[in-house]
Specification:
By secondary structure, the protein is of the alpha/beta class. It is built from 15 helices and 11 strands. β9, α11 and β10 form a beta-alpha-beta unit. It binds 2-acetamido-2-deoxy-beta-D-glucopyranose (NAG) (4 copies).
Length: 492
């Protein structure tokens, strides 16, 4: 062999060795320096350890994501323990994340407050206003819990909206909780679009409106008085007269004492039934769904038209005060029909299971006005993919500016519903094709009504924040108009 041929092969050998070495070095470096890379190490940890679902870039057009819902996996309403639920859902997703396998292809980012739909400042209210009501006691001066205390089950849960929204804001500060970036919590109120008041008003009403022992004033009223006093003293409140404050008062009787004084704020409500129009109205307030009590039927197991033997299902109390007269009349009209299932009684205890079964095997579920225009029943029907028949002229529906309820609900005016034969003729006239279209649509939109932690794109928590962000500009508009002739700022 000549010298000439040996030198190049040696050279190539060295070249390969050096480049392999450089390759290994650079990949090691990339892994190490993940703090400064676009994908923080915590995201990797989360995906590998917790196996939580893939991150979806909220700035990309959102597609309806069909996923098994965390909340639907836990069916015993009376014993829902969110901490348990979180670990269960983590388990459940860790299996499926392997199937997804597309983690690397999805863009991962940390929420950026400049790009968020909504920047929210949350008051550091003492725990007696929020997690203290769940029996949580922190260390001295500790405002927020590290482990999430469970929200009480049973009927309380239907108004637990305050809890899910607060948890979502708290998790906005935890880098490895993967959630939509619609809302980002900011710690400087001047940078916020909205000021959130973390008062668990529904729980306060449900648990503390009775007088105990020698109390002259209930804890619920005391908290509301304290809250009013606190808010009136805040610069944040004075700045815009409370217009940019967000207060959750989902139980129709919550905030009864304070609602008038805080009426300039935006409310998150179940309906407007017990509010005068100047205190609560669609222009500034948000209608949020009840948290449904029956378990969500998985899309793949949802019974079809032919598999649902019952035409019309209703469960609840038949005799109601106020607007509930229609129920009674309907009952007498329908009770003897063979494919109608009119059930008495509350949904508490085993009632939930019965309602789950009943709704999941019925084509149509009746939602008639009770003592308030809205009720949990509508959201139970949606979770069961039972086409809701809404007989409640005054009802306001969540997210109706983005959701067309006529695609998956039947609306019947109260006056028509009580005409003999009207309702059944209407419903029997809806053939399999038409019904199936509505049922398919129900399966597409059901995830908008799921409350869960961590929140997922398009779920109820995310939808509420998006709805708030759509109100912000009209609130701002009204506030600016009011200032036109305000001379006080001209006086030094
Ligand atoms: C994810 O796992 C890490 C490490 O095990 C843990 O510290 C963190 O709390 C988990 N996050 C969630 C959302 O479960
Ligand atoms: C899937 O998760 C369940 C718990 O939900 C666990 O028992 C099972 O071993 C997991 N399977 C795999 C393949 O990880
Ligand atoms: C709690 O806050 C008070 C007032 O700011 C302070 O004096 C006290 O030292 C704090 N206690 C603890 C344990 O940090
Ligand atoms: C809060 O934000 C405002 C406006 O961006 C800024 O002027 C102010 O200095 C900030 N305050 C603090 C404490 O960072």
């Amino acid at each position: 062999m000549s010298e000439k041929s040996r030198i190049p092969s040696k050279f190539i050998f060295y070249l390969i060795t050096v480049s392999v070495f450089l390759l290994i070095l650079s990949s090691l470096f990339l892994l190490q320096s993940s703090n400064t890379s676009f994908i923080p190490r915590s995201v990797f940890d989360l995906i590998l350890v917790n196996g939580t679902s893939v991150y979806f870039d909220p700035h990309v057009k959102k597609e309806p994501i069909k996923r098994p819902f965390a909340s639907s996996e836990v069916s015993q309403v009376d014993a829902v323990k969110p901490s348990k639920r979180i670990s269960e859902s983590a388990c459940q997703v860790s299996n499926s994340s392997k199937k997804l396998g597309s983690v690397g292809r999805k863009k991962m980012i940390v929420c950026d407050s400049n790009q968020a739909l909504l920047r929210v400042f949350m008051y550091e209210l003492p725990p007696e206003f929020h997690f203290g009501l769940l029996g949580w006691k922190g260390m001295e001066n500790q405002t927020w819990p590290r482990r999430i205390p469970p929200y009480p089950g049973g009927l309380n849960l239907q108004h637990s909206i305050e809890y899910w929204l607060t948890l979502d804001l708290l998790s906005s500060d935890i880098p490895n909780v993967v959630r939509p970036c619609s809302v980002v919590r900011v710690h400087n109120s001047s940078q916020a679009d909205v000021i959130f008041v973390p008062f668990f008003s529904s729980l306060s009403y449900n648990r503390h409106s009775m007088l105990h022992g020698k109390e002259k004033v209930s804890v619920n009223k005391k908290l509301q008085d304290k809250l009013v006093q606190f808010l009136m003293g805040q610069d944040e409140w004075k700045r815009k007269g409370g217009n940019d404050h967000l207060i959750v008062a989902h139980h129709p009787n919550s905030m009864l004492n304070a609602r008038r004084k805080l009426g300039s704020a935006m409310f998150v409500l179940a309906d407007f039934g017990r509010y005068p129009a100047e205190i609560a109205n669609l222009e500034k307030d948000i209608i949020a769904p009840y948290r449904h009590l029956v378990r969500t039927v998985p899309s793949s197991k949802s019974a079809t038209f032919k598999e649902r033997p019952v035409l019309v299902y209703f469960r609840g109390t038949i005799y109601r005060k106020d607007g509930g007269v229609i129920r009674q009349e309907l009952y007498y009209l329908l009770k003897d029909e063979k494919d109608v299932d009119f059930n008495f009684g509350s949904i508490q205890g085993n009632g939930v299971n019965k309602a789950s079964q009943g709704m999941a095997s019925s084509k149509f579920c009746l939602n008639t006005a009770g003592d308030t225009p809205s009720s949990n029943r509508l959201f139970d029907a949606i979770a069961s993919h039972c086409v809701p028949v809404i007989i409640s002229d005054e009802i306001e529906l969540p997210f109706e500016d983005v959701l067309d309820y006529s695609q998956f609900c039947i609306f019947v005016r109260g006056a028509d519903a009580v005409k003999r034969g009207y309702l059944l003729k209407l419903l029997r006239g809806i053939n399999e094709d038409k019904w199936t279209k509505m049922w398919e649509r129900l399966k597409e939109i059901v995830h908008h009504f799921e409350y869960q932690y961590p929140s997922q794109p398009g779920d109820a928590v995310d939808m509420i924040w998006q709805a708030v962000s759509r109100k912000v500009s009209s609130v701002q508009f009204r506030f600016h108009r009011k200032k036109r002739y305000d001379r006080s700022r001209l006086v030094v």
